[in-house]
Amino acid sequence: MVSPLHVTSEVGKLKKILLHRPGSELENLMPEYLHRQLFDDIPYLVHAQEEHDSFADTLRQCGVEVLYLEDLLREAVEAASVKDEIIAEYVAEAAIPAAGAAQAVSEYLTALPLKDAISAMMSGIRKSRIGRLPKRHLVDYTDEAYPFHADPLPNLYFTRDPFSIVGDGALLFCMANEVRRRETLFGKYIFNYHPLYGGIEKWYDRDDKYFMEGGDVLVLNSSTLAIGLSQRTDARGAELAARRLLESDSGFQRILVIDIPKTRAFMHLDTVMTMVDVNKFILHPNIRSSIRIYSIVMRNGRLRFTEEVRPMEQVFADALDVDEVTLIECGGGSIIDAAREQWNDGANTLAVAPGEVITYSRNYVTNRILRENGVTVHEIPSAELSRGRGGPRCMSMPFVRDDI
User: Fold this and answer.
1) Which of 188, 211, 377, 389 is the right S-S partner for 234, CB 3.0 to 4.6 Å?
2) Same domain for 118 and 137?
3) Both 88 and 211 in a single domain?
4) Could you confirm whether 394 is annotated as catalytic?
C-alpha cells in the first residue's frame, strides 16, 4: 500500500501540511498559571487567529494543501465511531482529582456534538461549565480555587511537536511536560482510525517512556535523520527512535544526534537551526561552540556510535552528499540581534521549496541576510503568535513533500 504520508527532506516542495488554528484554549491562559502552561505571555486570540490565517494563506499561495488538526480528528472519530473511547481516555489523562468531577466532565463532553466536544477537549474544561459538585473529600476543598477540571492545551498550535512524519511513517511522541501529553492523544486517534491516515507505520509511540518531541527532528534526506538532544528530548528516547528506524524498512541509514544546551531559549533543535535549501541552514551563532554531534549507524545488528570531531559544515555536507554547506547566522554578526531574533524564532523557518521559506516578519535582520544568501523569504505577521515561543516550523507538520 502506498503511504499517504511522505517526507524525505526538510526542503522538498511542500504539498500538504497540518496546522491548528489557535482557539479558545488561549483565552484559558491565566497569568498565575503561565509557567504551568509553558507560556511567557498571553496572546490576544483575535489577532493570533488573524496572523495564523495569514500563515495558512501564504502556504496556499505557495501551492500547499492545508489540513487542520481538529478536522482530521473529527473525521477519524466519526469513521470509527469511537467518541466514547476518546472521551474516556481524555478524562483519564486529565487526572481530575475532585470527587465526581471526572464523571461529570465525561457526561458533559458526551452530550456535546462531536465537533464541539473536540473543541472543548482542546480548550480545557472550566469548572464553571460543569457547575457546583458536592464536596466529599479533602481534595474537593483544597483544589477549589483552581478554575479548571481539565487544563487547556494552548500549545496545540505548535503542531510540530506531538508527532513527526518521517519517510512514509510517523513518530508519535511521549512529551516532556505533563501539560502537553494529551496533545498526542489526538495523533493516536488520527493515525489509528482516520480513513486516509489510519494504520500508518509508527516507529515511536506515546506510550514509550522516554521523552521526545518533534521540534527536535529534522529530516535531512531520505537516508539521514537529525535528532536534537534538548530540554525536551532525552538521549534514551533518541536512541530508541534511532534503533527502530535503522532496524526497519524506513529507508534511514544514519541518525545524526545533535546535543544542544538544555535551556528554555533553546527548547528544541529547530529553535536554533533549520534547513533553508539543499545545502544551506540558518543557525543561531551563539550555540555553535556548544553543539556536539554524534553519528549512529547499524552494523551487524548493533548500533554504532561515533562522536563527530569534524566541523559542523563538513558533517552536514557529508550527510547531505553535497560539496559544501553554508551555515547562515541568525541575526548576522551582532550578538544582540542574534539573541533578540532567535528569541523570536529567527532561526525557525519553514521551507516550502528548496531555497524558499516562510518566516516571521519581525526578524528583519535575519530575513535580509537570508535574501542576501539567495533564499526567497515569505514574511508573515507574528506579534501575537510569537508570544508562544515558536515560529513557522513549530506551527506546522508537513504530511507530504516532493523528493529532492
Assistant:
1) 211
2) yes
3) no
4) yes
DSSP classification of residue 101: H
333 and 243 within one domain: yes
- Residue 81, class by beta-carbon neighbours within 10 Å (0-12 exposed, 13-18 middle, 19+ buried)? exposed
Q: What is the pTM of this model?
A: 0.94
**Exposure string for 340-366, b = 16+ CB within 10 A, e = fewer:** bbbbbbbbbbbbbbbbbbbbbebbebb
Count Cβ atoms below 10 Å from residue 40 Cβ, excluding itself: 11
User: 357 is in which domain, residue-wise?
Assistant: 14-69+154-401
Query: What whole-number distance in Å separates Cα of residue 162 and Cα of residue 171?
Result: 9
For residues 133 and 246, state if they share a domain: no
Shared-domain flag, residues 335 and 189: yes
Alpha-helical segments (H) within 283-374: 312-320, 335-343, 364-372
Q: Are 337 and 388 found together in one domain?
A: yes
Q: Could you tell me whether strands 280-283 and 273-277 are parallel, antiparallel, or unpaired per DSSP bridges? A: antiparallel
**Out of 62, 174, 330, 394, which one is annotated catalytic?**
394
Indicate if 94 and 205 belong to the same structural domain: no
Closest CA to 214 of 370, 394, 389: 394
For the chain, 404 residues long, the average pLDDT of each consecutive 10-residue run is: 92 98 96 91 97 98 98 98 98 85 93 98 93 76 81 96 96 93 97 96 94 97 96 95 96 96 84 96 89 95 95 95 95 89 94 98 96 98 94 98 96
- Give the Å distances, CA to CA, from 244 to 140, 248, 396: 45, 6, 25
Q: How many CB atoms lie within 10 A of CB 320?
A: 20
Given 132, 150, 168, which residue is the final one in a domain? Answer: 150
Rounded-to-integer distance, Cα 132 and Cα 10, Å: 50
Q: Give 364-369's long-range contacts (Cβ < 8 A, gap of 24+).
A: 365/331, 365/332, 365/334, 365/337, 365/341, 366/282, 366/330, 366/331, 366/332, 366/337, 366/341, 369/328, 369/329, 369/331, 369/332
Residue 272, in any domain of the structure: yes
Whether 397 maps to a domain, the answer reads: yes
Alpha-carbon dihedral of residues 314, 204, 68, 31, nearest 10 degrees?
-90
> CA-CA distance, 158 to 220, in Å (whole number)?
21
Q: Give the count of domains, the chain.
A: 2
